């Protein structure tokens, strides 16, 4: 009953999206799902006095095939990933909700989510907005970290986040030996896109970045910065405008009749 009432009030549903994949020898395999969910909850609490927000349980599988060389990984393919997201949006519409905010925690989901969010907005006619939590506060995160310029993988940033949120899930005795060997993947020409596995990008441990520099204090500052950034997106009226119905039959003719070119 409470959820039906929230739908009637145009509450904002938030779907944390992550992955189940290796995160070096020291972090849990559900790192990306845990982080996305924890940060979504904090952002929802930050705006609770201004708007109703409903945070869904995290979608714990993403596109993680590049991590298979290290084990501890369960992945979807893109067709399944998009189909699951489509079912979520379709269900939310049936439940009476009219928009969706996706908070992503996994780098391998960024490009697929950009396509899915666009396609779902077209299909269902509602705003579907996706972000990845480091993108909510990139400058602030860069100023907090001391060993790397931004969030990478099982790194200073993600390890700091865990130390702030739940240090009991970090195998701190394994941090010192967690560094990967130098990346073996050749540098692709600028503007080229192709697949690289983490065996190629982060040989030996599957870690990118330096978790030895992680601290709980850095993690607390990252949490605060990202919470503020996600809250700004939740409040931004531009993001939540209904998408232009570009696929409407005869749209081009209708636009011309209204004076368009």
Account of the 3D structure:
The chain has 261 residues and is α/β, with parallel strands linked by helices. The chain has nine helices and four strands, in the order H-E-H-E-H-E-H-E-H-H-H-H-H. The protein has helices at 2-8, 31-46, 78-95, 110-124, 138-144, 156-165, 198-201, 216-235, 251-257, and strands at residues 12-17, 53-55, 100-104, 128-132. The protein starts with a helix and ends with a helix. The relative contact order is 0.17.
Task: Characterize this entry briefly.
The chain has 261 residues and is an alpha/beta fold. It contains nine helices and four strands, in the order H-E-H-E-H-E-H-E-H-H-H-H-H.
In terms of topology, how is this protein built?
Elements: H1 2-8, E1 12-17, H2 31-46, E2 53-55, H3 78-95, E3 100-104, H4 110-124, E4 128-132, H5 138-144, H6 156-165, H7 198-201, H8 216-235, H9 251-257
Parallel strand pairs: 1-2, 1-3, 3-4
């Amino acid at each position: 009953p409470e959820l039906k009432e929230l739908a009637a009030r145009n509450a904002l549903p938030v779907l944390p999206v992550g992955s189940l994949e290796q995160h070096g020898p020291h972090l849990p395999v559900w790192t990306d799902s845990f982080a996305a969910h924890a940060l979504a909850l904090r952002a929802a609490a930050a705006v609770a006095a201004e708007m109703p927000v409903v945070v869904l349980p995290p979608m714990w599988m993403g596109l993680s095939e590049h991590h298979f060389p290290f084990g501890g990984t369960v992945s979807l393919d893109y067709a399944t990933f998009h189909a699951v997201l489509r079912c979520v949006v379709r269900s939310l519409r049936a439940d009476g909700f009219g928009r969706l905010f996706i908070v992503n925690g996994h780098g391998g989901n960024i490009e697929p989510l950009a396509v899915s969010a666009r396609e779902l907005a077209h299909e269902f006619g509602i705003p579907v907005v996706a972000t990845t939590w480091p993108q909510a506060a990139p400058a602030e995160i860069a100023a907090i970290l001391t060993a790397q310029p931004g969030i990478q993988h099982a790194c200073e940033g993600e390890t700091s986040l865990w130390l702030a949120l739940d240090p009991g899930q970090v195998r701190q005795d394994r941090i010192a030996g967690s560094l990967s060997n130098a990346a073996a993947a050749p540098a692709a020409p600028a503007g080229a896109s192709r697949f690289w596995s983490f065996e190629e990008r982060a040989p030996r441990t599957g870690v990118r970045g330096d978790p030895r520099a992680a601290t709980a204090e850095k993690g607390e500052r990252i949490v605060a910065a990202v919470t503020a950034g996600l809250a700004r997106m939740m409040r931004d009226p531009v993001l939540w405008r209904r998408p232009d119905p570009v696929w409407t039959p005869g749209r081009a003719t209708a636009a011309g009749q209204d004076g368009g070119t």
